[in-house]
Design goal:
368 residues; Alpha-Beta Plaits; Arc Repressor Mutant, subunit A; 3 domains; 5-stranded mixed β-sheet
Length: 368
C-alpha cells in the first residue's frame, strides 16, 4: 500500500493527524528496547509518552508514524494492529529474523557467484533483492578465505556475531564458495579509526590494521590457521560489486602463490605480483631462460629466504642481517656469492629488479 494512502486511512479511523518521521535505526532500537511493554518486534515505542509506530526500515533508517494528539490505549493498540497487518501485506517486515537476514545474504552470495561464473562483470544487484537497500552506502569489502579448513565449517550466526562486535555495528555477511564476503559501512570504519587507530595516517594503513586485528580474532575463535584475509578500497558504486569481488578473489589467489607464509594479503602490496601473474606462459618461460639465474639457486631455501628478506627491507643490508639473525658480513658473503654465480648484484637497482621478477616467476610457474 502507498504510504500516503495508508496515512490517510489511519487518520480517518482515529480522527486525528499522524506525522511520518525518519529516524536512525539505532535510536529506534534504543527507544523500543527501553519500553518494557513493547519490544522491537511489536513495531511500537513511546517517546515522552507519545506512541510511535514502525512502518518500515531502509538501510540504516526507519520510518515511523507519530500521533500529533493524545490517543486512548484502545486507539494505540488499534493502530498497532492495523500497521502490523499492512506491513505483512506489503512485505515490510520491520525487523527481519536472523534466519531472514541469513537467507538474504545467501541469496546475494548465490547471485554473485552466478555472475562471476557467467562473466557478467557489469551486472548490478536486482531491485527485487531484499538485501539491496543495505548496499546503497559507501562500503568496504573484506574477503575471508576458508579453503584450508576442510571439514571445519564456520557457522554464519557465530561469525556474524563476532564481526558485529569487532566493527561495532551491523555488517552484511555473504557466504561464498570456500569464503565469506564481508561488507562494512564506511561510517563504522571511521568510528573504529577514531577510537582505536588515531595514529594511522592513511585509509590503507587503517584497513591493514583492521585486517590484522580481525584475522587474529577469527583465528583465536576457531583455533589454528587455515584462514586468509584480504580487503579492497572503498566501494562507492554498487555496480562495482561484482568486479570488486573478483579482484578480492584474485588477491587471495596471489597471496597463496607469492606470500605462502602470510595470511593477510593487501592488494596494493601485490601489484607487481598481479602483473607477473597475468604474463602469458610463453613470455614467462622466455624471461626465465634469459634471466641468468640458474635453477639450483632458487631451489636453495637459504638463498631464497635471504633474497626475499633483502627485498622486503628495501635492500638494506643491516636491517636484513638483523631480521635473519646473522652477522652483517655473513649476509654480504651470501650476496657476493650470488653475484659470482649469476653475474647479478642485487645491491644495484637494475639487477635487484631482474632477480625479484625471476623469483616471482619461479613461484607462479614452479619452473626453473
Amino acid at each position: 500500500m502507498d504510504i500516503k494512502e495508508l496515512k490517510r486511512q489511519l487518520e480517518g479511523i482515529i480522527g486525528s493527524s499522524l506525522s511520518l518521521l525518519e529516524m536512525d535505526q539505532e535510536i529506534w532500537n534504543s527507544l523500543a528496547n527501553g519500553n518494557s511493554l513493547n519490544q522491537p518486534s511489536s513495531g511500537m515505542a513511546r517517546l515522552h509518552d507519545r506512541p510511535r509506530w514502525l512502518w518500515k526500515t531502509d538501510s540504516s533508517k526507519v520510518y515511523v508514524f507519530e500521533a500529533e494528539t493524545p490517543l486512548t490505549e484502545r486507539e494505540i493498540r488499534l493502530i498497532d494492529l492495523l500497521l502490523s497487518a499492512a506491513r505483512e501485506k506489503s512485505n515490510h517486515h520491520p525487523f527481519p529474523s536472523k534466519r531472514d537476514e541469513e537467507s538474504r545474504c545467501i541469496e546475494l552470495g548465490k547471485w554473485l557467484q552466478e555472475q562471476i561464473k557467467s562473466g557478467n562483470i557489469q551486472s548490478t544487484v536486482p531491485d527485487d533483492m531484499a538485501i539491496k537497500p543495505k548496499l546503497a552506502e559507501n562500503l568496504f569489502l573484506f574477503l575471508l578465505g576458508c579453503e584450508d579448513r576442510p571439514g571445519q565449517e564456520v557457522q554464519y550466526s557465530k561469525l556474524n556475531k563476532l564481526l558485529r562486535s569487532y566493527f561495532g555495528g551491523e555488517v552484511v555477511l555473504v557466504p561464498m564458495r570456500e569464503s565469506w564476503l564481508v561488507l562494512v559501512r564506511e561510517a563504522l570504519l571511521l568510528d573504529v579509526q577514531d577510537e582505536s587507530n588515531e595514529g594511522i595516517e592513511t585509509e590503507r594503513d587503517m584497513l591493514g590494521a583492521l585486517c590484522q586485528g580481525l584475522y587474529e580474532l577469527i583465528a583465536n575463535e576457531w583455533g589454528g590457521g587455515g584462514f586468509r584475509l584480504t580487503v579492497g578500497d572503498k566501494l562507492i558504486n554498487q555496480e562495482r560489486l561484482v568486479p570488486t569481488t573478483i579482484a578480492l578473489q584474485e588477491t587471495l589467489l596471489l597471496g597463496r602463490i607469492f606470500q605462502v607464509s602470510e595470511h593477510i594479503y593487501l592488494p596494493w602490496d601485490l601489484e607487481l605480483e598481479r602483473l607477473v601473474y597475468h604474463i602469458p606462459d610463453d613470455r614467462r618461460l622466455q624471461f626465465i631462460e634469459e634471466s641468468g639465474v640458474d635453477s639450483h639457486l632458487l631451489e636453495d631455501e637459504e638463498t631464497l629466504i635471504t633474497l626475499e628478506n633483502f627485498f622486503q627491507l628495501d635492500c638494506n643490508v643491516s636491517e636484513t642481517a638483523k631480521r635473519l639473525y646473522i652477522h652483517r658480513n655473513t649476509l654480504l658473503y651470501r650476496l657476493d656469492k650470488f653475484k659470482q654465480e649469476t653475474g647479478l648484484d642485487v645491491r644495484s637497482f637494475q639487477d635487484a629488479v631482474l632477480v625479484k621478477l625471476r623469483i616471482l616467476l619461479y613461484k607462479v610457474t614452479k619452473r626453473l
